[in-house]
Amino acid sequence: xxxxxxxxxxxxxxxxxxxxxxxxxxxxxxxxxxxxxxxxxxxxxxxxxxxxxxxxxxxxxxxxxxxxxxxxxxxxxxxxxxxxxxxxxxxxxxxxxxxxxxxxxxxxxxxxxxxxxxxxxxxxxxxxxxxxxxxxxxxxxxxxxxxxxxxxxxxxxxxxxxxxxxxxxxxxxxxxxxxxxxxxxxxxxxxxxxxxxxxxxxxxxxxxxxxxxxxxxxxxxxxxxxxxxxxxxxxxxxxxxxxxxxxxxxxxxxxxxxxxxxxxxxxxxxxxxxxxxxxxxxxxxxxxxxxxxxxxxxxxxxxxxxxxxxxxxxxxxxxxxxxxxxxxxxxxxxxxxxxxxxxxxxxxxxxxxxxxxxxxxxxxxxxxxxxxxxxxxxxxxxxxxxxxxxxxxxxxxxxxxxxxxxxxxxxxxxxxxxxxxxxxxxxxxxxxxxxxxxxxxxxxxxxxxxxxxxxxxxxxxxxxxxx
Length: 467
What we know:
Elements: H1 2-27, E1 28-30, E2 35-41, E3 52-55, E4 59-61, E5 67-73, E6 77-87, E7 93-104, H2 110-117, H3 123-143, H4 147-152, H5 154-170, E8 174-181, E9 185-186, H6 190-367, H7 372-382, H8 384-396, H9 418-428, H10 433-439, H11 452-456
Antiparallel strand pairs: 1-4, 2-3, 2-5, 6-7, 7-8, 7-9
Helix pairs in contact: 3-5, 6-7
């Protein structure tokens, strides 16, 4: 029982699926090429206010319950229009029987109009609607054209009718396929009168042409007879003249022959001379080209022998100069680097010396019980031997073998003797040691002499002591 139940469920499921597929396929509608498929109900893609969606070709799935469909036939409809008594521009009534071929339009936007207005109408009702629209538009077109133009210019009439009718037919979803105007008549006989006038004009023009042709025939016959007699006389004269001309031509031909023979001989001689001259010219030209090629080859050889070595030498000099410049630059750079290292080392040494001196000076100041002036005095006193040494150097290079003084015992205005003046002047060239030490606050002992100011401001006893 379990197997049979399972088989029953499988068969039932298959049948349900088959029925569903068949139902779906039946709701999938294809549109033939000669029809328009109109899907109406709840449609999508046509805007919020769309009531139907049209397909010309293709297919669409019809949603059950929510949608339905219908086909519009695109078969053309032939409509006979017996227009009678339509007023023209001159208020002349015209009869214009015509045949129109119309059909439902497949233009997007226009076939939606057909779906809205013609969907449930049969073709007879559609034809009646189109006939009413065409009648009205033909009367409008006739009222805008003069009767002469309606009768004479059929193409313009058809064009005006087509443009007027087409606009109105599109409003209901139709399109105009063809227009055929059969005949044009009027109740007053105006068109017949125009025809008779045209026929009379054509007959009169034909008669004039016949008379012109008859006149031309008579004139032509007389001119032909005259030409005949003239031609006969001219033929006789031409025969005699022809004989004479023949004899002249024979004589001229002989003369021309002899002249041609002489000219041929002359041209042969000239041609021979010309050919000889051309051969010489070509030989000279060939020699000239050979010389030019030889000169060009010599020039190239000289260039290879002189210019190329010179160019090589020039490049060699340039390379050597660049190498020398690079060597000098590197040597200078090494010297500059060495000098920089030496100067940096000297600066470090000087910095260390000054640092040590500053530390020593600090110890001196501390030893001088914190008095900087005593520390300065100690430093100057320390440098005093060097000062004396420098003072001695001022006269150490003087070479004096001997000094001879003739002293007459006399005195000058200051009471000094000549010898004393000489010695004082000699000692005066020494640097003012006392003044140097006073500038730094050091008072030298008197054993080292006195300063010039002290001597000049002294007692004036005229001593000859030396400072």
